Amino acid sequence: MDLQLDGKVAVVTGGSLGIGNAIAGELAREGARVMIVARDAQRTSDAAQELSQQAGTQVLACSGDMMDPSSIDCVMAQAREALGPVDILVNNAGSSPMGTIAATPDAVWEKCLNLKLLGYMRCARNVLPEMRARRWGRIVNIIGRSGHQPRAAYMAGGAVNAALLNFTLALAEECAPDNVLVTGVNPGPIQTPRWDTLVSQSAALSGTNANAANAAAVASVPLGRVGQPHEISGMVAFLCSERASFVTGTCINIDGGGTRCI
């Protein structure tokens, strides 16, 4: 299937590890010109070099903090200078720790909101004028199923994800007349360093060990296993493509059937 992504300029935040890294690789293999962004400069540079070797085309690296509005502006300016106007934005940077209300201080709430909700919004706001002027653009927000399946043990993360579900659909409505398509993807348990961290945090909260916490999470997935990053990246590449030209204002669960709500 030709996704018609040759020459498209894509920025993937949180692209040095896990799902973001897999998405960047997928887009690069489809012919997009990709820049990955993350806070750790060395790790991001190493990841870009590895992706370049795998894809057979150059993937650029840029260090940036998505909690800092000026850093976001700097990242996007570097992308434009190196690659040209941004056609595709994949918002993936940002994660929230496990925690009940009593175990989640204000500083954690503020960080979660600033990094993921405001970070996604600021990145989108930065690239939208040029997308709308060209009447072509794709914004894909990597969110999470906790936005519509609340859990007491993931209080802040679920609230932020719920806000992002709303933001994604509202932004899609605003941008649709300009042919800028906005979608969300809600991953379930995916085998990444981030997943290992969540399992450890869940075990600490429940007073069990990591193996038991992982087994409990897997038991909640009808397919009976944890997903792999490439099972997310393929869908994201499709949503970024011309083949998905009539898909906007929706959020897709990729979780092995774990989300059971209407």
Short overview:
The chain has 262 residues and is of the alpha/beta class.
Overview of the structural elements:
With 262 residues, the protein is an alpha/beta fold. It has one domain (9-188, 227-253): NAD(P)-binding Rossmann-like Domain (Rossmann fold). 48% of the residues lie in helices and 15% in strands. The protein contains eight helices and seven strands. It has a seven-stranded parallel β-sheet with strand order 3-2-1-4-5-6-7, with helices on both faces.
The number of domains: 1
Secondary structure class reads: alpha/beta
Q: How much helicity do the residues have?
A: 40-55%
The whole-number mean of residue pLDDT values reads: 95
Pfam family, one: adh_short
Family: Belongs to the short-chain dehydrogenases/reductases (SDR) family.
Protein name: SDR family NAD(P)-dependent oxidoreductase
